């Protein structure tokens, strides 16, 4: 039985060690990918001065991002994002209104379609735009950072400018007790189309707090100013994620961190279990082999002229050699003669 158990444990050891190798070489790449079932709502609040009303007023914004599972594939995820910004003077405005709203609360409503690499978060090459149904070519990061974020500058897409801008690493900070990487984008007085068909200048100071392991944005604030060429301000916006959105983001980050942390420990756990199983199995197998396969030497059986076993033959019983090894001992021939 010990021999069988030993063989089973050595087989288990081989399986566990192979699992450890796969966990190192394959599992991280398979797990660290943007899911294909994304359907997220991000809400922001703040204040804005907007023409023609002028003056500062409360505003709110909604960004709804959903992945297109039919167009996405193993390496690329396709997103559709709808963003709505409107004034919220009484704190009871809906998530969005259309341009027929009698209270004229709509500031802007936009849609965007883009595709990113599921691991790096980078926009796909423009040659694949038609494949994924994308009208405008995008570059750089768009809605998240890569997995395992580095402390460096990343190119980040700016939809107003239609190109990437630098997202600069500015250190580590805690958001609701969760450690994040802080990145800042600073754009000042760049020529841009500030509204449909209207040219002017655009400035934006955007700060993002990123979960280092998943690259997800945990919090974001932005001060944005759009001016006409004559210097008149069209939009002066200061807003950021709501407390509810931040709390939900941190909750998701903690859950994902636990899953990815387990994946990171899997090679070590399975490797140690494999070695332990192998050692225990080997010693059980070796012990059973020694106990059952070795015995004391046996003296070959012999028979005399009468066909009877003579003394010293191994017939399964203990016998006494009455003649011994002494040369003075009487021989069988002498006995017969007597």
UniProtKB/TrEMBL annotation:
Keywords assigned: Membrane, Transmembrane, Transmembrane helix
Source domain of life: Bacteria
Matches recorded under InterPro entries: PorA
Transmembrane parts of this sequence: 266-285
Keyword Transmembrane attributed: yes
One of the Pfam families matching this protein, by short name: PorA
Disordered, as annotated region: 293-315
Name assigned to this protein: DUF3068 domain-containing protein
Species of origin: Knoellia subterranea KCTC 19937
């Amino acid at each position: 039985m010990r021999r069988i158990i030993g063989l089973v444990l050595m087989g288990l050891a081989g399986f566990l060690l192979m699992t450890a190798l796969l966990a190192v070489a394959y599992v991280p790449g398979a797990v660290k990918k943007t899911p294909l079932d994304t359907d997220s709502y991000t809400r922001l609040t703040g204040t804005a001065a907007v023409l023609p009303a002028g003056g500062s007023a409360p505003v709110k914004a909604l960004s709804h991002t959903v992945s297109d599972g039919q167009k996405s594939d193993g390496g690329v995820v396709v997103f559709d994002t709808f963003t709505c910004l409107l004034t919220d003077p009484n704190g009871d405005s809906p998530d969005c209104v259309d341009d027929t709203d009698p209270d004229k609360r709509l500031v802007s409503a936009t849609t965007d379609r883009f595709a990113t690499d599921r691991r790096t978060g980078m926009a796909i090459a423009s040659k694949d735009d038609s494949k994924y149904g994308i009208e405008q070519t995008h570059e750089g990061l768009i809605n998240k950072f890569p997995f395992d974020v580095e402390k460096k500058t990343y190119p980040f897409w700016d939809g107003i400018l239609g190109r990437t801008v630098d997202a600069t690493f500015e250190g580590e900070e805690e958001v609701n007790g969760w450690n994040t990487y802080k990145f800042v984008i600073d754009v000042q007085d760049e020529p841009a189309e500030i509204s449909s068909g209207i040219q002017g200048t655009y400035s934006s100071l955007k700060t993002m707090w990123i979960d280092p392991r998943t690259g997800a944005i945990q919090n974001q604030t932005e001060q944005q100013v759009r001016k006409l060429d004559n210097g008149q301000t069209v939009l002066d916006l200061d807003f950021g994620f709501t407390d509810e959105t931040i709390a939900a983001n941190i909750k998701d980050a903690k859950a994902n961190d636990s899953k990815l942390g387990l994946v990171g420990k899997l090679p070590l756990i399975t490797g140690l279990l494999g070695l332990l199983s192998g050692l225990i199995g080997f010693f059980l197998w070796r012990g059973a082999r020694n106990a059952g396969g070795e015995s004391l030497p046996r003296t070959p059986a012999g028979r005399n002229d009468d066909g009877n076993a003579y003394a010293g033959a191994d017939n399964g019983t203990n016998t006494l050699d009455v003649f011994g090894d002494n040369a003075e001992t009487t021989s069988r021939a002498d006995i017969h003669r007597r």
